[in-house]
Amino acid sequence: MNKLTVGLVQQACSADRAENIEKSVAGIRRCAKQGAKLVVLQELHTSLYFCDVEDPANFDLAETIPGPSTETFGQLAKELGVVIVTSLFERRAPGLYHNTAVVLESDGTIAGKYRKMHIPDDPGYYEKFYFTPGDLGFSPIETSVGKLGVLVCWDQWYPEAARLMAMAGADLLIYPTAIGWDPNDLLEEQARQRNAWITIQRAHAVANGIPVISANRVGTEPGGAQFWGTSFVAGCQGELLAEADTTSETELVVELDSNRSEIVRRMWPYLRDRRIDAYADLTRRFID
Fold first, then answer.
1. Considering 23, 37, 113, 116, which one is annotated as catalytic?
2. Among positive and negative, which fits the CA dihedral 76, 44, 150, 139?
3. Whole-number Å distance between alpha carbons of 244 and 252
4. pLDDT (tens digit, 9 = 90+) per residue, 67-80?
5. Distance (Å, whole) CA 159 – CA 202
6. Annotated catalytic residue 23
7. What is the average pLDDT across 103-131?
8. What is the structure's pLDDT at 225?
9. Helix (H, G, I), strand (E, B) or coil at 75
10. Concatenated DSSP letters for 105-129?
């Protein structure tokens, strides 16, 4: 497909799972009505961002794959004839949980899943308490709309992850996200953080010659985080094709042209000029 219309849903979340899912479903429907054939949801969109505390009771939020979310969004994907990227707290086995993105094909089946590889542990983001690092690697998911390089939130800060997805043939990079400000930070620091977040992802688009889709949540949740929205789509030269604001529950719908990636990669052949003979130290933690 040379032309692909993509949509993403930016929403606030509450403690009411049914309400959150209703918002996600409504957003997907609005995107599909505008012609989207691929719709991306934000990270952990069926609940509050529970990783702000370390509480064993929060493991009750986890679900299996297949399970309730894949059933709901699989049926919706089939009804609307769209591919959906959803996000959930995966219960893989007793004591083994992942932060997982699942891709539902337009016929309702599970096209594939990606388990978040980079797991943060910062004030307000205690994800290591809940999530085992992913073990599926950086493999694009084959769908009817192309090869999707699905990554999750903290992964977006790592150029290695984006590069490996691109090297494996991803047509797009997709980042379901839950990131926000500490309201105690100075406004100048808040601006620096948000700008850094936008810049690093636009750089992935530039360095790999493919578009980036990033869907983030909005709203202030009980733990105090103020999620900054700013969901966006960047073209393969990093150009912003669409960007949401920091407060609104909204959708973005954008048409992408895969021929742009081909043209740009011919002009800027980063993959050709990589010095793979000199990169062995990238597998080390640090060079002393």
1. 116
2. negative
3. 7
4. 999 999 999 999 99
5. 11
6. no
7. 97
8. 85
9. helix
10. -TTSSEEEEEE-----EETTEEGGG
């993403």: which residue's tokens? Answer: 8
Count CB-CB contacts under 10 A for residue 173. Answer: 26
Q: What number is the average pLDDT over the span 6-30? A: 98
Please say if 43 is a catalytic residue: yes
> What are 90-115's pLDDT values in tens digits?
999 999 999 999 999 999 999 999 99
Give the strand pairing for 180-181 and 250-257: unpaired
Distance CA 51, CA 69 (A): 19
pTM of the model: 0.96
**What does the chain come to in residues?**
288
Q: Is the pLDDT of residue 278 over 80?
A: yes
Q: Which two tokens stand for residue 135?
A: 């073990």
Instruction: Give me the amino acid identity at 209.
Output: G
Q: Which of 129, 110, 107 is nearest to 120 (CA)?
A: 129
Query: Mean pLDDT over all residues of the chain?
Result: 97
Distance (Å, whole) CA 43 – CA 174: 11
Q: Which of 153, 221, 236, 251 is catalytic?
A: 153
Question: Which domains, from first to last, does the chain contain?
Answer: 3-274 (3.60.110.10)
Angle between helices 159-167 and 187-208 (to 10 degrees): 20
Q: pLDDT tier at 1 (50, 70, 90 boundaries)?
A: low
Catalytic residue among 43, 90, 127, 221: 43
The two three-digit tokens of residue 261, written as one number: 């990636």
In 3D, which of 161, 235, 228 has the Cα closest to residue 193? 228
- Note if 236 is an active site residue: no
Query: Per DSSP, which regions of 157-257 are E strands?
Result: 172-177, 180-181, 212-216, 218-220, 226-228, 232-234, 240-243, 250-257
